[in-house]
Amino acid sequence: MISVKTEPLSIAVTYHEPEAALRAQLLAEELGLPLITGPATFTHLLTVHPTHVELVDTTTVAKPFYIDFNSSALTYRRQHGGGRQQALSRAIGLKSNKCPWVIDATAGLGRDSFILASLGCRITMFERNPILQVLLKDGLIRGLDNPETHDICSRMALIPVDIQQWGGSQPAADVLFLDPMYPHRQKSSLVKKEMRIIRQLVGDDQDADSLLSFGLSTNIRRIVVKRPKNAPFLGNKKPSTCLKEKNSRFDIYLQHQTTDNHA
């Protein structure tokens, strides 16, 4: 089985509808996870439906989770989240005449990537956790099939690998975005639930410092790190500038004498 976090975790693939059986079987083989069709003791079930794939935490009464880029929450954020004036957009360097190509090296649930894509950015997402990869792929497929989100999701590409171990050529992107897990992040109850899902799967990003070092070793001119407001700088490396919000901040590292003087 795949080890997807440091604490004990057991995952199986299952399905309920007969038409989802083949997809469930192929997914179980791809992930190296058991395929079950009846009661069993696992902490999580990756449940395949004809319409989507969802993750069920069997240890709680929480609702099953799946990635939906057309959800009411994301639609509201897209329409009322501040557009190009929101902190994420300004940190990335998005302007009226500039939609940068962004690498999201820690894609997670893909929501920041989706918001940036909705504003016109081209996004390349890297995600190394196999379960999150499955959920992201499934969300992107449905996003492309939906007329409301097709154009946005067409600007999003997923590379299912750790960016530090990727064997491909270095993308000529404008921005590298990092949002590593942090042990003491404080969020609203809704976001805490979402963060708990990710933390169950990936734990804390113990190599967050090396992610920044990797970014600084590339030719990408702008590295943006999303951090809790009072968290230390990654690797004790002071950024060129910071953009602060109420509960978080964006540390911005500018390289190669960029003429983009926005912060």
Textual characterization of the structure:
The protein has 263 residues and is α/β, with parallel strands linked by helices. The chain has two domains: 11-57, no CATH class; 72-254, Rossmann fold (3-Layer(aba) Sandwich). Helix content is 29%, strand content 20%. It is built from eight helices and eleven strands. The chain has helices at 21-31, 72-80, 87-92, 111-118, 130-145, 150-153, 189-202, 208-216; strands spanning 11-15, 35-36, 44-48, 53-57, 101-104, 122-126, 156-159, 175-178, 222-228, 241-244, 248-254. The strands form two sheets. The protein has a seven-stranded mixed beta sheet, with helices on both faces. It has a four-stranded mixed beta sheet with strand order 2-1-3-4, with helices on one face. The longest helix has 16 residues, at 130-145. The N and C termini lie far apart (44 Å). The model is unreliable at 1-7, 184-190 and 257-263 (pLDDT under 50).
Task: Please supply descriptive tags for the structure shown above.
263 residues, alpha/beta, Rossmann fold, 2 domains, seven-stranded mixed beta sheet, four-stranded mixed beta sheet, 8 helices, globular, disordered N terminus, disordered C terminus
Number of domains: 2
Largest sheet: 7 strands, mixed
CATH hierarchy: architecture of the largest domain: 3-Layer(aba) Sandwich
Rg for CA atoms: 19 Å
Low-confidence stretches: 1-7, 184-190, 257-263
For the residues shown, what is the average pLDDT?
86
Query: What structural category characterises the helix and strand content?
Result: alpha/beta
CATH homology superfamily name of the largest domain:
Vaccinia Virus protein VP39
What's the overall geometry?
A: globular
